[in-house]
Amino acid sequence: MKKGLTPICHRFFTNLSNPTRLAALEQLMNKPMSVTELAKALGQEQSMISHNLKPLIECNFIFGQKQGKRHVYSVNQETVNMLFKTVENHAAKFCPSGGKCLKGGN
Amino acid sequence: MKKGLTPICHRFFTNLSNPTRLAALEQLMNKPMSVTELAKALGQEQSMISHNLKPLIECNFIFGQKQGKRHVYSVNQETVNMLFKTVENHAAKFCPSGGKCLKGGN
DNA sequence: ACTTTATATGAAATATAATTCATATGAATA
DNA sequence: TATTCATATGAATTATATTTCATATAAAGT
Hints:
2 copies of one chain form a homodimer.
Chain A (H helix, E strand, L loop, with lengths): L5 H11 L2 H12 L2 E2 H8 L3 H13 L3 E6 L2 E6 L1 H18 L12
Antiparallel strand pairs in A: 1-3, 2-3
Helix pairs in contact in A: 3-4
Chain A binds a DNA duplex through α4.
């Protein structure tokens, strides 16, 4: 790790350390969606989705595109795919019991 | 992303969303160290390092080895290297201004 | 056995982040 | 231009995480 990357890493991972944002990313991996569509898919309030999308946009984990009054968001495949692959690999190799490191719930 | 990975991702990234833990990982990338050595290197209290190392150990981001009364910790290179590479790549490509996504401090 | 050194733990205090609710902005349409 | 639909924002509340301080455990050395 290059020196001085710690603050960027912190922002980066803090962004991802939230179940709503992760669920949103998961949805957007399938297909681009609007805020309202995401809210419906995740069973959450519109304002909550909007609040949570904001940091994802700011750090370019997702990209937004205006379509009239809708805002359609798509995932940054390059980064997010790599991250999820890394998590899957880690879970497979280093969390043998699957839920071992999840005691106490998510 | 496989379905149902969200809770694991959450734990995974929450673990990394802390400057003390990131700084500890950064140190351990150079060489394995004991708790006291880390505390000295990072200018932090021993108990704080110990508290922060715990979740890293539980999720196997680092591995511990007893050497007498010292506990020497080494980093899980496979996972942590991949993560830091991903952050570097993302920062290079998607944070062109360097600190753009850091306004407001770390 | 006593003292020192290394580490871990518990619990209170503090700091940070997430959620909710009310409301604002802005684009489309009647 | 009034109304509806889509999204964003502010601020208060609530929830979570971090830090600190005191203390416990445990290995080594005297």
